[in-house]
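Annex B. Sample input.
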Amino acid sequence: MNGVRQPGGYLCEAVAEGPVYGTGQTARYVLGTFRTISPVLALRWLGGQALWIVDRLDPDPARSAWVQPAMRLPDAPGPDHSAELRSWYQDRNGQRAAHAHLKNGHPLLVVVPDADCTYSLSVHPERTVRPATASPSTTDWTTTGRNWA
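Annex B, continued. Sample output.
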């Protein structure tokens, strides 16, 4: 097929992958998918999914209504992946860089490991092939047998 590849949109996906207890196998669960023609909406959806995941894994004590001051513990040793994902979402310079990255046609992947599961958030630019024919403004539509008026 002779054609020109043009930006067609963005496919977004949130996936959880981890071991299945007692089987030695790994399972992949699609948590959500989204398609859009806008890189801004793709990043907005991705950020919403990131917050949805971390709020279920480790609610933010500063925003949670049910966490009382006496319940707050000092930070545990080791990496805090939920906090890292929240800071990725709130980093406006990083979001602008991600937007430019997507606009240039590159995929975006955010991987967050947890104790027993790995969460992957991705945006893949989709390309559509447009036939290399005359533009509609120069085509004589009356020859197709249809009345477009």
